[in-house]
Amino acid sequence: MIDRAYRVYCYWKTHGTSALQQLVYRKLANKLHASSNSMGEGDTSQTSVTQLCRKRFESLAPLLTYSIPASSVRRVSIVTDSVSSGSLFGGVGTALIFSALLANELNAQLRIVTRTQRAQPENIDHILALYGIKLKHEVQFKFAAFFDQKYELDVKEGDLFVTTSWWTTAATLPSVPRESIIYLLQEDERMFYAFGDDRVKCEDTLRNGDIRFLINTKLLFDHLATDGLSNIAAKGKWFEPAFPAAIFYPRDKQASKKKRFFFYARPNNGRNLFYLGVEVIERAIAEKVLDPLEWEICLVGKDIPAVVFDGGYVPEKFENLTWSQYAELAGTIDVGLSLMSTPHPSYPPLDLAASGAVVVTNRFGNKTDLSGYSHNLICADLERDALVEALRSAVTLASNTQLREQNFRNNGLAGDWQQAFGTIIKQLSEEL
Questions:
Q1: Phi, psi at 305, each rounded to 5°
Q2: Which of 181, 218, 254, 275 is 20 to 30 Å from 293 at the Cα level?
Q3: Spelled out in words, what is the top-level CATH class assigned to the domain 60-242+418-431?
């Protein structure tokens, strides 16, 4: 028993919380399949193609639904993996805000359907209250675990489904009318994978011509439209995210405190280039671009390993923050480094710029210049020395209080989610 617990601990230390969680789900699913086989479904020594593929792509298991009579109140269901505190940043939070605003526009009820973890209602309350969104009807919650074949999800005529990834979309497609699906796409999700089965299945979902696509940023829309996804080019809609000034703004700091540096640290999300990032910080410290005597270095993210930088400097780690805690921290940052090896600008650079910081991020494809959002955003090539030089420029700009403040005041970032989604939600309410 102790040996097993130690192996679990070692796996967690090596691969992180998310990987351990998925391993547990796979083990549970394997037990369910084994149980089914032992009850006479076939020869347990052999595996059918259907069983083989189902086991490999467990998260694509279709939603198990049953019909109920239509009612006078419609329903908007958001289908996502989790709404835990660690899952609500960025994309999932955006999907929740969109779904809540759409539900209110349609005088509909909002339902949260989660696939990997039971919903925590207090997290939903926190986000909606933070953004000043009051639902017209009481929110519903349903745990539709992909590894569980016993739950049932009721559906009725007029239901709408907002999916949040290609796998939640693929799971929803066989179970509900396709015209009822709105796929909120916030990244080129093909880039999550090597060239293999996962990528092929992802692209197959992205090419679906029967569902509505809503794309996060024109930058990502343009990339997808020119990279072979003609269905998105023809029928997709895009929006720019909003950063309300009541949440994202510079916080007062004591004059005696060090300047603050922010690095978006997610070692288990390859596209965030954690290892390149820490190499850049190491070089920046060695070259006195970031002098630990003057700078407090903050690693903000998830599953952050214990790391010591040049000269024995140990950074501060910030994990499992609530949205309001994260916004509070962002408002104290002077310079940030946030990498994303995809076409989307990602949220942390925009969050920080909206909060008054100067931020370095990377170029990728048509993502070459983000000054339209803010002149406090500096893009550099994905190469260590180029990023160090960009940090040097960012530190200089952050020290120029007048120019930094002027750039912040002239930000091109949207500040209101009602306006960001207003036209799209109006169009959808007329179509649906």
A1: -75, 160
A2: 275
A3: alpha beta
